[in-house]
User: Fold these one by one.
Assistant:
Number 1:
Amino acid sequence: MNVGHRSGGSESVGGRFRRGRARAVRHPGEACIMGSPFRLDAESAPFVGISQAVKNVLQLADSVAKSDCGVLIEGESGTGKELIARRIWAKSNRADKPFLPVNCAGISESLFESQFFGHVRGAFTGAEQNMLGVIRAADGGTVFLDEVSEIPYGSQAKLLRALQEREVMPVGKPVPVKVDTRFLAGTNRNLAEMVQEGKFRRDLYYRLNIVRIVIPPLREHNEDVPVLLDHFGRLFADIYRREPIELSREVRAVLTGYAWPGNVRELAAWVERLYVTGIAPQLLADMLINDTPLTAQPRSAEGLSLKQVERAAIVQALERSDFNQRKAARMLQVHRATLARKLKQHKLI
Ligand SMILES: Nc1ncnc2c1ncn2[C@@H]1O[C@H](COP(=O)(O)OP(=O)(O)OP(=O)(O)O)[C@@H](O)[C@H]1O
Ligand SMILES: [Mg+2]
């Protein structure tokens, strides 16, 4: 299980867990965006979008924040499920208590109870100290069950009991302990279908799914792509202390038309790559569309193939001429027809 990690306190929580914070902090090794050493949280990482789809999601999330009901957040990977969960927590009356995201994928049934309900020292071989477990560690706050579909079937009944009775029984100490923990859950699987197939318990499904928030994939609200590009542009210009990089209308159009299979996470990674590498936006957009690995584009002049130099020169001329092919051809001192042929060759059009 991949759970967060608590700072301070005499009892360990179990595994690693991430605690809710209200600022972006530089914290190498912590949960981070796209593998970069920056951590984004509810307030510093607002849920960005102008589309009706995003407005609906935000409206629903905000309307359920103050209640204690279970919320199931569905959406493909990278659509912002955890961000919405954090927002619900941040706007709830529990915001001064922990927010603990728990990645339920890979929890073994044997460890489930100790990780969730805690254990006492000596409860089993290897239990060298008392452990609170996730539910008690988030007492008064909120647990986000990420990838909830992956909880082993046998453990689902135990979790349901804790949710219903609002108490947990630590391993090795069979005395129920009252808890006041709210549960939010996220999934990129179709949980209702899993219930039909007998892979997920119906009773737990109903309990978690008092309110269901579905975050659509980015390709279904691509009018948000430009605002997301601007949002992450500002963010990474600030983080990497670089001048803002202008994106031309053409690049924006190409990116807006792209399907973004990795959703907002992929888009954020693209913008970060732009700021880290300094590669021309047009070229980087083209690489995204054609799925060219970054390593195929050396940045220094050394080691560039003739073809790469030609391509870079073309892209630069296009950018400088604001994508006017006639002007670009003049800059490159070639006939317009030659440029048109080269654009095709390099898959730039
Ligand atoms: N609408 C949005 N506005 C701003 N940032 C967003 C938005 N949606 C997602 N992000 C950012 O994209 C990244 C991925 O989001 P998040 O981790 O919440 O996705 P997820 O749906 O939980 O993905 P997974 O299923 O892979 O766990 C995060 O850095 C998050 O801050
Ligand atoms: Mg997630």
Note: The chain has 14 helices and ten strands.
Number 2:
Amino acid sequence: MEKSRPFRPGPGDTWWLTLAALAFIGLDIALYVFGEPTTGWAGPAAGVTLQVLLDLSLLLLFRFPRLVAGLVLAGALLMLASDLLSPGLLVPERQLTLMTVPTITPVVLSQLARLMDRRTLLWLTAILVLCASRPWDAHWNTTPFGLLGTALPTTISLYFEARRQLLRSLRDRAERAEREQHLLAERARAEERRKLAEEMHDVVTHRLSLMVLHAGALGVVSADEAVRTSAEDIRREGALALDELRDLVGVLRDGANAGPRTLTDGTAGDPATLVAESSSVGIPTELTVHGDPGRISPTIARTAYRVVQEALTNIRKHAPGSTATVGLRYHADGLDIAVENTRAGAPADPALAGSGSGAGLAGLRQRVELIGGRFGAGPIAGGGYRVDAILPAYVPTAEGDA
Ligand SMILES: Nc1ncnc2c1ncn2[C@@H]1O[C@H](COP(=O)(O)OP(=O)(O)OP(=O)(O)O)[C@@H](O)[C@H]1O
Ligand SMILES: [Mg+2]
């Protein structure tokens, strides 16, 4: 059996406890008014005073269960002593009810299983059963009634407590199973990432490095200055792509080994470099920056870089011969990006335009929305195209920018 957790009463519990205490005070006063008073030296109200005090102790039941149990036990023993030694002192000689223990006894016993250990409860119940049923003076009136008022509530209370513990252990077990399931899924994902990293490393990196080598060789053997420059450009770009691939493979591997990490890890590049590159390959591009770039978080800066990068790549692929503008507006709430190009001045190279997977803009949208931003892309009047994004200053999650 699991170790039981302490019971914490909610506001509802406190409410009904107060109501029960008031109800029992009312009941005891009614019994006093309509029944007989006590007749001992302590006066006619001695019995009702004892009962009302015990009723009030009910308010402390959830906070001090042992104290209240002790008070009820003491009350029962006092009533028994009064009956045996000085009849009429604390219990009227002729009672309206057949109760020879405090009236709140059943309520207290019905709650104790969840408030105290079972052994103490059983001892307490045993003594109260004796007090209430009076086996030495068994009577058809008192004995069954006494048993009903003491043994029955304890039995019910123990039954419900056992049921509660069983349910809790079942729930704990279900939760544990779910956690294990989650861990297994996590491990499967890590494995997937590791395989992907291997694949990228073995296939893509291999081909790309061959291209870089060929371009290098072409640069060396060609007599034509223009070809040599282009070959050098290809070699440099290929080498940069290899660098980025290496980082990606590293991230995928690390992710597989060291838990959640995203592809956005790393330092952010400068959009100005992208703009310069774009201009140098025949798309005159103008950059305008407003505000202070220092205020945004690195994750947001990396996302911004990716947005500009993909938009400029698309322009080179799908709108050759156009001119472009890149606008970055930094403000307190984040960053607005707009990349726009005019109508294409030349037909797009089918090999280049058809080379993509068509997932560039969709991926960007996902990426932007993931960090709580908004993304839009589409043709504009005059035959051009526009990509814009509104990014927040910080990633709105606890771990996003840790
Ligand atoms: N600047 C642009 N001018 C004209 N059409 C564009 C421009 N940018 C995007 N498009 C159109 O939007 C489509 C989707 O672009 P997206 O970047 O998602 O895919 P892609 O560039 O074809 O492939 P990928 O980015 O996966 O290599 C493109 O196929 C193209 O038709
Ligand atoms: Mg694209």
Note: The pocket of adenosine-5'-triphosphate (ligand 1) is lined by residues 314-315, 317-319, 341, 356-362, 385 (CB under 6 Å).
